[in-house]
Amino acid sequence: MKSIDAKEKPDINHISDALVEKGVDFEISVSHPNILHRMKILKTVRKFTIKPLHYGTIIRISGIIHNIDEVEKLNNYVTEGIESIHKNANKIVEVIAFAITDTKSEPSIFLKNFIKWNLTPIELQTLLNIIIKQMRIIEFLQSIILVKGLNQMENLNQSKMEVPQDTETVGKQSVQ
After folding, report:
1. Where are the alpha helices (DSSP H) in 20-120?
2. Nearest Cα to Cα of residue 107 among 124, 90, 123
3. 1-6 — which CB contacts under 8 Å span 24+ positions?
4. Which pLDDT tens digit goes with each residue over 85-143?
5. pTM of the shown model
6. SS3 call for 39
7. Residue 90: how many other CB atoms lie within 10 Å
């Protein structure tokens, strides 16, 4: 993976990109080119774009992430790391493949193998950060809070409309 078009510093271009939902471009280079790559029959670099993900893809990816086992013990990083790689490596590859394709259909086995055999762990981490950003989790949570807030407002309005009937008042009645 050579270049990623994502800057840390927000500017007017990134704000407009967010409004039009522009994707993040990245390249994956073939780690071990064979004769077909050297003869220019196959490309040695593949370019991908991860756009803001559709809701169906977000559901699939969040299901995969939810099933990733947590590292419980941190006594021996090497042992736990190897165990975690063994259990979760294919799940991480699936997350990246789903994000790249962003369709109803399953990602191809060729794409999964390409990801598995051509990315380093640092590149995987960078791509996962991009995918999490493109999942727009914060906006999803804000919409849930908005809907929950509307439900609470409805409950508040209903409780205001229910006036107790047999009450005694001293003085003038207040208007609601």
Report:
1. 35-38, 55-66, 77-101, 109-118
2. 90
3. 1/26, 1/27, 1/28, 1/29, 1/119, 1/120, 1/123, 1/126, 1/127, 2/27, 2/29, 2/45, 3/27, 4/126, 4/130, 6/130, 6/133
4. 889 999 999 999 999 999 999 999 999 999 999 999 999 999 999 999 999 888 888 88
5. 0.72
6. coil
7. 13
